[in-house]
Design goal:
Structural class: alpha+beta
Order of helices and strands: HHEHEHEEE
Helix content: 40-55%
Number of domains: 1
Strand content: 5-15%
Largest sheet: 3 strands, antiparallel
Shape: rod-shaped
Radius of gyration: 22 Å
Length: 147
């Protein structure tokens, strides 16, 4: 029968610490994935829609701002709801970026480069009177959210 020595205890403690860190880190990364998805969807669900261009051009940046081009690069003079199909595709592409998340120490940024976004978001950040309840409620998101 072998005796337990201090080296064995140190090795065990080291391995236990590594495993604990791996499990906790994995849980935090999973939480970040869930939270980012929730926040991103909330932003999309509360975005104004005319053509869908603004909606389709929200981006998730992992480790910094996303510098992707607007899609399409020029909005032109769109028809109502013209870009709604693109918005669904864009949402899925952006959420797929979360699959690359492997560290809880990375900054996640949600934003848009649509040039008129600050105007829309400033208008949405004002207080609106609820028709049925008569309560003022704050509604709004900013062009870039970091967490």
């Amino acid at each position: 029968m072998s005796r337990i020595n201090s080296k064995m205890v140190e090795d065990f403690a080291f391995e236990l610490d590594k495993e604990f860190e791996r499990v906790v880190q994995g849980s935090v990364v999973r939480f970040m994935d869930i939270a980012t998805t929730f926040i991103f969807d909330a932003i999309l669900e509360n975005s104004r829609v005319f053509s869908g261009y603004y909606l389709a051009n929200h981006r998730i940046g992992i480790g910094g701002l996303d510098d992707a081009e607007l899609e399409p690069p020029e909005r032109g003079d769109p028809e109502p709801f013209q870009y709604l199909d693109l918005a669904a595709v864009s949402r899925n592409e952006e959420l797929q970026k979360l699959e690359t998340l492997d560290s809880p120490w990375v900054k996640i940024t949600i934003g848009t480069a649509v040039p008129y976004a600050p105007i829309l978001e400033a208008e949405d950040a004002t207080y609106a009177r609820g028709e049925e309840e008569g309560l003022a409620q704050a509604i709004g998101f900013f062009a870039v959210e970091e967490f």
